[in-house]
Amino acid sequence: MTTEQIEQELMKLPVADRARLAERLIASLDADAEIEAAWTAEVRIRDEQMRSGAVEAIPLEDALTTVRTRFGW
Predict the structure, then answer these.
(1) To bridge 68 with a disulfide, which of 11, 23, 30, 73 should be the other Cys (CB 3.0-4.6 Å)?
(2) Does residue 35 sit in helix, strand or coil?
(3) CA–CA gap between residue 9 and residue 34 (Å, rounded)
(4) Taking a C-beta distance cutoff of 8 angstroms, is the pair 33, 27 a contact?
(5) The pTM is what?
(6) Interatomic CA distance for residues 47 and 13, integer angstroms
(7) How far apart, in whole angstroms, are the C-alpha atoms of residue 13 and residue 55?
């Protein structure tokens, strides 16, 4: 099977599957692919937590105040 034939077959996949495959292919080109994949997974988890209501967003100023207080800045 040629590269062009593989590409034609891959274009028949649903968008989500193509996106996942694209991420994996790009990650395979990067020396830090494992780290990048871990961050991608973490972003997806956090996004889902926000969307589902499992966690609540904190306004930036509140978060910065907490950090400044905790670290004495």
Answers:
(1) 73
(2) helix
(3) 27
(4) yes
(5) 0.46
(6) 24
(7) 33
